[in-house]
Design brief:
Structural class: mainly alpha
Distance between the termini: 22 Å
Shape: elongated
Length: 162
């Protein structure tokens, strides 16, 4: 509901500024955000919404950077003919049991070059991932844990349901 109010207010403000161009609309969206942050002092829904906006604004650039970094790693592997590959299928335990979050984590892992989410075992809370090159299972598990933690901060900013 808060998102709809925010979108409506941003659209009205952009229209008042005489342009519904994406730049004006984005500026209006950003200009109205502090209002929700202030309302969060007295209204829990506004506070959670503001936290989601903040976490999303941090998550998206971070994830784009991870994808770019992984792309360069895969390019290095492809362009180096004698690169000693160590592919593996590994099992990584997840903290969350929410199937929606597990699905998002699997999709984000699959979108990252060099990784592929294969399966999820709900009773153990483990996700199975094929990794193109891994020297350390701990590094891969830490990277998956980082994605999970940041995604949980965005989707469940107050910690509800964890």
């Amino acid at each position: 509901m808060m998102l709809y109010v925010h979108l409506l207010l941003a659209t009205v403000l952009a229209a008042v500024l005489a342009s519904l161009s994406p730049l004006y609309w984005l500026s209006a969206f950003a200009a109205i955000y502090p209002l929700f942050r202030l309302c969060g002092l007295i209204h829990r829904g506004s506070r959670v919404y503001a936290l989601r906006i903040e976490a999303g604004a941090v998550f998206v650039p971070w994830y784009i950077w991870q994808v770019l970094r992984a792309s360069f790693d895969v390019a290095k592997i492809v362009l180096t003919p004698r690169y000693p590959l160590e592919p593996a299928v590994i099992s990584v335990p997840l903290r969350t049991r929410d199937r929606r979050l597990v699905t998002l984590i699997g999709c984000l892992l699959t979108l990252t070059p060099g990784t592929l989410a294969l399966d999820y075992r709900a009773r153990d809370g483990e996700i199975f991932i094929h990794v193109l090159d891994t020297r350390s299972v701990d590094c891969v598990a830490a990277a998956v844990g980082e994605i999970e933690l940041r995604l949980m901060r965005w989707v469940q900013p107050g910690g509800e349901g964890q």
